[in-house]
Amino acid sequence: MAPIQLGSDQEQTGCLSSFFSSCSRTPKQELNxxxxxxxxxxMEQLPAYQDIAQAMDKLDxxxxxxxxxxxxxxxxxxxxxxxxxxxxxxxxxxxGMKEVHAHQVLTDYLESKGFKVTRHAYGMETSFxxxxxxxxxxxxxxxxxxxxxxxxxxxxxHNLIAISGLATAIGIKAAIESxxxxxxxxxxxxxxxxxxxxxxxxVAKRAFQDNVDVCVMxxxxxxxxxxxxxxxxxxxxxxFFGSPSHASAAPxxxxxxxxxxxxxxxxxxxxxxxxxPTDRVHGIVTDGGQAPNVIPEHTSAFFFIRTTKHTQAPxxxxxxxxxxxxxxxATGCKVKYTWREIGITKDVVQNQVMADTYAAHMEKYGIKFxxxxxxxxxxxxxxxxxxxxxxMPCIHPAYGxxxxxxxxxxxxTAAAKTLAAHKDTIRATKCLAAxxxxxxxxxxxxxxxxxxxxxxxxx
Length: 459
Ligand SMILES: [Zn+2]
Description:
Layout: H1 16-23, H2 36-39, H3 42-45, H4 49-58, H5 65-77, H6 79-91, H7 100-112, E1 116-119, E2 128-134, E3 139-144, H8 158-177, E4 183-189, H9 198-204, E5 214-216, E6 219-221, E7 232-241, H10 257-271, E8 280-287, E9 298-307, H11 313-331, E10 334-339, H12 352-364, H13 372-377, H14 385-389, E11 394-395, E12 398-400, H15 410-415, H16 419-441, H17 443-458
Parallel strand pairs: 3-4, 3-5, 5-11, 6-12
Antiparallel strand pairs: 1-2, 2-4, 7-9, 7-10, 8-9
Helix pairs in contact: 5-8, 5-16, 6-8, 8-16, 10-11, 12-16, 16-17
Zinc ion is lined by residues 156, 158, 193, 219.
GO molecular function, one term: dipeptidase activity
């Protein structure tokens, strides 16, 4: 039996149409259409006011096409300016903590767009904060990165992350300015991501914790993952001290620091057999001795360890230290090892509620996302956004820029300046901005975001 029709020319308008269609009822007996209204007892057929109010509460704000239009227009209006900034940063790459040009370009631009800008924020020469607020309400943080890689330039596409940060902040600002949302947006300029320094220092100084309630950012890559997996990483410098001697005339008088290093290498190689499939240890020799005819008195190496959760790192650290100590004992050398002083780069906890909102917006553009399991399996890289994600709900989705090249390659550097990559960035950025605006608008949604954050941290 067909549901009652309110009229043959009824139009489907926005998402409310599906809500109201779900409220339509099937009559108990067949009725002639023209008698429909008189035949229904309104009190019996219509849902209770309370039910409607609850259902309205659950309606997604992304259905507010007017607000989406405001965000899109604000970002479209600055498209040419963003493209020019992106190409400028691509043509003038700067490595971590030396991003002087990017700092100037980005802060000048944000000031011209009406943000309150703090240059050199929190004691770093190339970090900044740009704020805009109106009325009371929640506070959305956005991160921009802009450092390049030595020898590779923008091999990780941080020129695109920089303009994505600008556009997300400007899109959210436009939503606030329209009067349809209130609260605050803060863009954090976070230097030296490739060195895993910027955000860790900002977290240590409570830059995020004291200023925003959630934090969002995007990263270009070769695929679209809303739950992009980023694992924890820590690093260690190890040195061995022996005694020099003539390598041929009196080798027995020497204590060979290179033997200690080789022993360490072998110890780690054997240790790998008993590590979890998700653990990683990799490194380089930074000093292997000075001359073949001198027993090396000093050697050094630099290792990274990675685990899926930062809480697992001490297990690996202990094993590494045992390899160092054992090699020193076996060769008679002294050993010194120094774990990174700033601390571990944590894994990224993606807030599923916000990640799904971002993905729902991207799906409207035809983007398909693999299953969560597939996305997690693809993890291998790390980012200092992880440390922010343990302080507040965060998302750091990855989006494809029409390349099959992996990040940190010459091919990816080339891809990061194409018009296709720019368009991909703008599209993903609109979806990120809409997610941020949802946090400002919808208290029930924000509560779910926070609830998810608590559940993730309890795991
Ligand atoms: Zn990167």
